[in-house]
Design brief:
Blueprint lengths: L2 H12 L5 H8 L3 H13 L12 H4 L3 E9 L4 H13 L3 E6 L6 E7 L2 H11 L6 E8 L10
Antiparallel strand pairs: 1-3, 1-4, 2-3
Helix pairs in contact: 1-2, 2-3
């Protein structure tokens, strides 16, 4: 990883749809050299994918809730069952296995408090693996670089 590749990655993080010609201009390369570098970053897995950043408020899912979930058991089958349930839940945008007093941190997006209550009781509340649920409602995000 050299300084040019780092600049390419930085530019792509800001605008993944930038044309190759514009990207090359921004990082000081010819278009062909820039394209070769981007393709190598893709082949090597450093660039995993390109995504659109959505305005969730216009989609009706503007409420973000960070949910800490503790499991009742520490067996692998408990974690796998929980993760499979979260993969099926459309409200769950991220599911992270973490260290500390609980096992999981979720980022949940819903359209209303009623929708979150339904997710809380009808999804999380129905899983036998779940021991504790702590919800943190996001008021604002001063910095969010997720794409």
């Amino acid at each position: 990883m050299d300084a040019i590749n780092e600049r390419i990655l930085s530019e792509l993080e800001v605008d993944g749809r930038v044309s190759n010609a514009e990207l090359a201009s921004r990082v000081g390369l010819s278009a062909s050299a820039c394209l070769r570098r981007v393709q190598e970053l893709e082949r090597s897995g450093i660039i995993k994918s390109y995504r659109a950043v959505l305005d969730r408020s216009k989609l009706g899912t503007a409420m973000t809730v960070f949910v800490m979930v503790g499991l009742g058991g520490q067996l692998k089958k408990d974690a796998q069952a929980f993760e499979q349930a979260m993969a099926r839940a459309p409200e769950v945008r991220e599911c992270h296995n973490i260290t500390g007093s609980v096992e999981y941190l979720l980022r949940v997006e819903v359209g209303s408090l009623e929708a979150y209550k339904s997710f809380h009781s009808d999804t999380l509340g129905m899983l036998p693996q779940v021991r504790s649920i702590t919800s943190h409602f996001c008021l604002d995000s001063a910095k969010d670089l997720r794409a």
